[in-house]
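User: Let's play a game. I give you a shape written as tokens, and you guess the letters that built it. Ready? Here's round one.
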């Protein structure tokens, strides 16, 4: 059985793209690797942040929805995003940085078996920095040398993604029975599953919690995408997901990757996305994220699209 190679990207809702851009570039030191639009609704930005090239497993993406209301936290939602940093000293560096810059954060804790520092962005999106402690990361992750953050403490890429659900067993069955994730640890109300044994870059933390479902808004997570190699493998997964009993939304060519979507039993939205062709398909690596890039099928609407978007630095 094929197995998932790790996270691809994760997508959130923001009310203000400019504010988001400031936080993820100027505070977290990530690179904006693509400024484009939501292909299903080109009236809103779709912004991507990550490493030098926006490599799979480093991408945080945001849909700008100016009318987005407040998130009402609850269950059956993706509730926290882990970001890997090189060392324990990196956590201390980030704690001081957050204090200096007025970023909402907690104390150093243990999370998913790692030393960690929880924090929130300006819209209440919950994140946590995780000590990678010298563990392997994908060899294609590429450092962005122009990051504002000190080289020895820069964010490496995505770590554990937390999902809070009413039925832990249902989600666990999907992860293990469908995708081949393995149980790494289990406690009374939480469990950690890994797509690559011993590695945090493909890790999902399940938290079991009863109560009302989360009402999404600004600072909430829309979906998580997991990696597949190419279009052929994506179509194999499509058949397998349907055989497992889930409805697959159609396979879509997003130009930068192909993808499909489905909801598991608790309603969590998963995307499967191909590794390529990637963000350099229409931009030189030196100029990624600087201009508004549109897929070819939207290019003839550029004037209209640009007129409806607020400028972002």
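Assistant: Ready! My guess for every position:
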């Amino acid at each position: 059985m094929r197995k998932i190679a790790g996270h691809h990207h994760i997508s959130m809702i923001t009310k203000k793209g400019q504010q988001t851009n400031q936080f993820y570039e100027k505070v977290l030191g990530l690179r904006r690797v693509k400024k484009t639009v939501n292909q299903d609704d080109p009236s809103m930005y779709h912004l991507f942040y990550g490493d030098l090239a926006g490599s799979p497993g480093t991408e945080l993406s945001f849909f700008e929805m100016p009318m987005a209301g407040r998130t009402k936290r609850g269950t059956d939602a993706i509730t926290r995003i882990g970001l890997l940093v090189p060392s324990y000293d990196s956590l201390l560096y980030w704690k001081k940085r957050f204090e200096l810059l007025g970023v909402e954060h907690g104390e150093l804790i243990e999370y998913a078996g790692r030393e960690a520092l929880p924090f929130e962005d300006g819209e209440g999106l919950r994140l946590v920095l995780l000590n990678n402690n010298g563990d392997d990361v994908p060899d294609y992750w590429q450092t962005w040398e122009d990051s504002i953050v000190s080289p020895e403490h820069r964010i490496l890429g995505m770590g554990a993604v937390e999902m809070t659900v009413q039925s832990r067993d249902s989600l666990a069955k999907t992860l293990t029975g469908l995708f081949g994730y393995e149980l790494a640890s289990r406690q009374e109300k939480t469990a950690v599953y890994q797509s690559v044994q011993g590695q945090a870059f493909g890790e999902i933390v399940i938290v079991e919690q009863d109560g009302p479902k989360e009402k999404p808004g600004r600072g909430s997570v829309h979906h998580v995408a997991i990696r597949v190699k190419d279009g052929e493998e994506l179509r194999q997964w499509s058949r397998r997901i349907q055989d497992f009993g889930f409805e697959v939304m159609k396979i879509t060519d997003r130009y930068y990757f192909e993808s499909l979507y489905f909801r598991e039993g608790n309603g969590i939205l998963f995307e499967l996305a191909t590794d390529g062709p990637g963000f350099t398909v229409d931009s030189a690596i030196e100029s990624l994220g600087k201009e508004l890039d549109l897929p070819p099928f939207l290019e003839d609407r550029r004037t209209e699209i640009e007129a409806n978007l607020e400028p972002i630095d």
